[in-house]
Amino acid sequence: EIVLTQSPATLSLSPGERATLSCRASQSVSSYLAWYQQKPGQAPRLLIYDASNRATGIPARFSGSGSGTDFTLTISSLEPEDFAVYYCQQRSNWPPTYSFGQGTKLEIK
Amino acid sequence: QLQLQESGSGLVKPSQTLSLTCAVSGGSISSGGYSWSWIRQPPGKGLEWIGYIYHSGSTYYNPSLKSRVTISVDRSKNQFSLKLSSVTAADTAVYYCAREDYSNYGRWFDPWGQGTLVTVSS
Question: Is there a contact between B108 and A1 if contact means CB atoms under 8 Å apart?
Answer without folding.
Answer: no
